[in-house]
């Protein structure tokens, strides 16, 4: 009789979560314990993974909303809800494993922002791992997956009052375990390589570099060389695209030089760009300093050539990234070869005059 009782209980539990509507109605109940919510979500994740597409379609928008609201609940509670948070993210990834699921996710305006709130390097690594995987995948979905992910990360950062919206991703890349670091770099690559516009790619890459990646690149390269193959692959993608954008920037600079080859025209363009902006006094200061160059037929061209080389190295910084304006490392300008060349030319000119 006792055995029959247990069999009946088992059958009852098995049949409790069969149809999509049964999961939705169960999660809709108030005052469910943490374990009950977790067990239901765990079962739901398996069902979403193993059942045919028709099952996921039946789960539909109503089911998706319920998973998202449960995930939102985790942000208002303590670490006891971490395992629920993780299962919610896994369920969302399972839902998005097909075109219909992606459409349902995109139809919910706040969905990706809710996911982006799980970007927290202080949480268990598995939580951020799942969130990053969702966002990295969405980032590559045309036509507006990239835009939606950037917006979600931005809104999440504003809600949490983060100084830098990409800080959690960079923090996890620096401090996370091996798997988390790889997917974080995958997300970064998806963010900085997807846009067609060069200036937007440079803007995003520079922002992420300033957030802390600039100081960590050397360490990541060493770890990649030491045998972390997956990390090495993602790092190579990042560096290769950075190099390609640098050369595209150089080509664009050469085109500008050909188009604006008159001193007056060029000055007017620069003046109009900085007029009535915080940059205006700095341009004025640069011009005032140029007035102090000695009026000497040999010295003046040498000064301008040296200044031109410094400006070129600063503006067209190697790799197409902005200098480290936070001054966490020294900015290196290599002018010694130019100075040596100028010295030689000066000697030749002096000897010629003699």
Automatic annotation (TrEMBL):
<dbReference type="InterPro" id="IPR010473">
    <property type="entry name" value="GTPase-bd"/>
</dbReference>
<dbReference type="GO" id="GO:0031267">
    <property type="term" value="F:small GTPase binding"/>
</dbReference>
<dbReference type="GO" id="GO:0005884">
    <property type="term" value="C:actin filament"/>
</dbReference>
<protein>
    <recommendedName>
        <fullName>GBD/FH3 domain-containing protein</fullName>
    </recommendedName>
</protein>
<dbReference type="InterPro" id="IPR051412">
    <property type="entry name" value="Formin_Homology_Diaphanous_sf"/>
</dbReference>
<dbReference type="Pfam" id="PF06367">
    <property type="entry name" value="Drf_FH3"/>
</dbReference>
<dbReference type="InterPro" id="IPR014768">
    <property type="entry name" value="GBD/FH3_dom"/>
</dbReference>
<dbReference type="Pfam" id="PF06371">
    <property type="entry name" value="Drf_GBD"/>
</dbReference>
<dbReference type="GO" id="GO:0003779">
    <property type="term" value="F:actin binding"/>
</dbReference>
<dbReference type="GO" id="GO:0030041">
    <property type="term" value="P:actin filament polymerization"/>
</dbReference>
<dbReference type="InterPro" id="IPR011989">
    <property type="entry name" value="ARM-like"/>
</dbReference>
<dbReference type="InterPro" id="IPR016024">
    <property type="entry name" value="ARM-type_fold"/>
</dbReference>
<feature type="domain" description="GBD/FH3">
    <location>
        <begin position="1"/>
        <end position="322"/>
    </location>
</feature>
<dbReference type="InterPro" id="IPR010472">
    <property type="entry name" value="FH3_dom"/>
</dbReference>
């Amino acid at each position: 009789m006792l055995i029959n009782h247990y069999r009946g209980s088992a059958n009852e539990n098995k049949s409790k979560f069969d149809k999509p509507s049964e999961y939705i109605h169960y999660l809709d109940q108030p005052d469910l314990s943490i374990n009950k919510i977790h067990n239901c979500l765990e079962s739901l994740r398996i069902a979403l993974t193993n059942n045919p597409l028709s099952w996921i379609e039946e789960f539909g928008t109503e089911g998706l909303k319920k998973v998202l609201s449960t995930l939102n609940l985790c942000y208002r509670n303590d670490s006891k809800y971490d395992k629920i948070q993780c299962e919610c993210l896994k369920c969302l990834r399972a839902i998005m494993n097909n075109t219909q699921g992606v459409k349902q996710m995109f139809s919910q305006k706040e969905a990706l922002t809710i996911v982006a709130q799980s970007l927290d390097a202080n949480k268990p690594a598995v939580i951020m791992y799942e969130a990053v995987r969702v966002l990295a995948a969405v980032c590559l979905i045309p036509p507006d997956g990239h835009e939606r992910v950037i917006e979600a990360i931005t809104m999440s950062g504003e809600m949490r009052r983060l100084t830098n919206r990409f800080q959690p991703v960079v923090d996890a890349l620096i401090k996370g375990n091996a798997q988390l670091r790889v997917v974080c770099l995958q997300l970064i690559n998806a963010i900085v390589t997807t846009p067609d516009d060069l200036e937007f790619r440079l803007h995003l890459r520079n922002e992420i570099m300033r957030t802390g990646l600039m100081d960590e690149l050397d360490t990541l390269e060493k770890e990649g060389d030491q045998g972390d193959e997956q990390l090495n692959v993602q790092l190579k993608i990042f560096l290769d695209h950075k190099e390609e954008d640098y050369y595209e920037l150089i080509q664009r600079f050469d085109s500008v030089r050909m188009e604006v080859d008159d001193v007056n025209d060029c000055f007017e363009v620069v003046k109009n760009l900085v007029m009535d902006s915080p940059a205006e006094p700095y341009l004025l200061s640069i011009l005032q300093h140029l007035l102090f160059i000695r009026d000497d037929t040999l010295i003046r061209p040498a000064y301008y050539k040296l200044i031109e080389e410094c400006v070129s190295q600063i503006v067209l910084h190697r790799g197409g990234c902005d200098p480290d304006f936070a001054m966490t490392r020294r900015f290196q300008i290599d002018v010694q070869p130019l100075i040596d060349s100028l010295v030689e030319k000066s000697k030749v000119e002096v000897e010629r005059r003699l």
